[in-house]
Amino acid sequence: MTITTERTAMLPWDVQTVWQVVTGVEGYPAWRRDLLRAEILNEKQFLEHTPGGIQTLCTVTAAEPCRRWAFDLENPNLTGHWVGQFTAQGAGTQVTFRETVTLKKGIPRPLVWGYLKRQQARFLADLERALAQEGNGGGRP
Known about the structure:
Elements: E1 2-11, H1 15-23, H2 28-31, E2 37-40, E3 45-49, E4 55-64, E5 68-74, E6 78-89, E7 92-103, H3 109-133
Antiparallel strand pairs: 1-7, 2-3, 3-4, 4-5, 5-6, 6-7
């Protein structure tokens, strides 16, 4: 079973600042509430560790600075693909995050869809908090 979720938001920070925070994997544990640590394996791969012990291997498939960042992901429960689109709009940035996952286990679709939607909302909330802390508001007008 494959599930896709997508979330778009307008952030009042410049695209360079948003890009740096989202692609700065080594900084994830400082601002993402869902991660215990992040481990960079090489130029294309990193490993996310959750407090519950789940490890997700992420393999970068596209990196167009300040435009698009994408990676494949895999853990014991699912495989999938994540894409972040970044568009400068005035002094701010429009972001669209899209995640498509295929479940490895028989978890009911509505539960997974709801979980992914909550994860996306949490990621955006955590991202906004991290951006607000970047250099006294970062690129915020």
